[in-house]
């Protein structure tokens, strides 16, 4: 059986492999090694951000060799009234995060504005510390205030899909990460 197709087409756009599964795996070992030494003796809650981080979180936490809790949350954004603008809400957290060492697990930080909002919402739950682990970081596009503490890969400002990340709902199940082909126009 053919294991992988190195080029794929989603919603009429062409993508090519950018980070193969083995390379992601190797980098996860390095990130986990750091977590295992830097977060020792802390009351850790890993907080995976849905939907995009579900695969990264599942793979990363299995390499962590520390006592920890694992939870998932979703950031919902909706339009408020004219005076309030966009309202952000953190949903799905049932745990008490007070005094905990929270490690956010995200799939990608692009402008970083989503992460800024997330950190702001999490602070209200009074954790003792907040750390950020992101698989991908589009550093050139970053304008946010919060920078990741643990980054899998710094990538160029181009659209990627796979390993949890989607393009308009598709592609999350791909085991490699694909990048929009250079000759293709931008996705909107
Ligand atoms: P930010 O607020 O600009 O950092 O955007 C973060 C969100 O945009 C991520 O959580 C993703 O859902 C989405 N995103 C940004 N870049 C990509 C990409 O290249 N592929 C898929 N989703 C992306
Ligand atoms: Mg996301």
Identify the notable features of this structure and list them briefly.
Rossmann fold, six-stranded mixed sheet, 10 strands, 35% strand, 188 residues, 3 helices, alpha/beta, binds inosinic acid
* First-to-last CA distance: 35 Å
Strand percentage? 25-35%
Largest sheet: 6 strands, mixed
H-E order: EEHEHEEEHEEEE
CATH architecture: 3-Layer(aba) Sandwich
Question: What's the assembly state of these chains?
Answer: single chain
Report on the structure:
The protein is an alpha/beta fold and about 190 residues long. The chain has 3 helices and 10 strands, in the order ββαβαβββαββββ. The protein has helices at about 20-40, 55-60, 115-125; strands at about 5-10, 15-20, 45-50, 70-80, 85-90, 100-110, 130-135, 150-155, 160, 175-180. The strands form 2 sheets. A 6-stranded mixed β-sheet has the order 5-4-3-6-7-8. β1 and β2 (about 15-20) form a beta hairpin. It is globular, with a radius of gyration of 17 Å. The mean pLDDT is about 95. Bound molecules: inosinic acid (IMP) and magnesium ion. The site of inosinic acid (IMP) has 14 residues, from β6, α3 and β9.
Describe this structure in a few short sentences.
By secondary structure, the protein is an alpha/beta fold. It is 20% helix and 35% strand.
Write the layout of secondary structure elements.
Elements: E1 7-10, E2 13-19, H1 21-38, E3 44-50, H2 54-61, E4 68-79, E5 86-91, E6 101-109, H3 113-123, E7 129-137, E8 150-154, E9 160-161, E10 177-180
Parallel strand pairs: 3-4, 3-6, 6-7, 7-8
Antiparallel strand pairs: 1-2, 2-10, 4-5, 9-10
């Amino acid at each position: 059986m053919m294991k992988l197709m190195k080029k794929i087409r989603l919603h009429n756009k062409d993508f090519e492999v950018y980070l193969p599964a083995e390379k992601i795996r190797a980098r996860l070992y390095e990130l986990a090694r750091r977590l295992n030494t830097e977060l020792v003796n802390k009351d850790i809650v890993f907080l995976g951000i849905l939907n995009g981080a579900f695969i990264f979180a599942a793979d990363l936490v299995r390499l962590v060799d520390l006592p920890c809790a694992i939870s998932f949350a979703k950031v919902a954004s909706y339009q408020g009234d004219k005076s309030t603008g966009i309202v952000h809400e953190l949903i799905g957290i049932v745990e008490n995060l007070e005094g905990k060492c929270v490690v956010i697990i995200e799939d990608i930080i692009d402008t970083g504005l989503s992460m800024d909002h997330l950190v702001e919402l999490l602070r209200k739950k009074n954790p003792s510390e907040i750390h950020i682990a992101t698989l991908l970081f589009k550093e050139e596009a970053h304008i946010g205030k919060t920078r990741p503490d643990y980054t899998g890969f710094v990538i160029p400002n181009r659209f990627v899909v796979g390993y949890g990340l989607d393009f308009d709902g598709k592609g999350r199940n791909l085991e490699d990460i694909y990048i929009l082909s250079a000759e293709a126009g931008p996705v909107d």
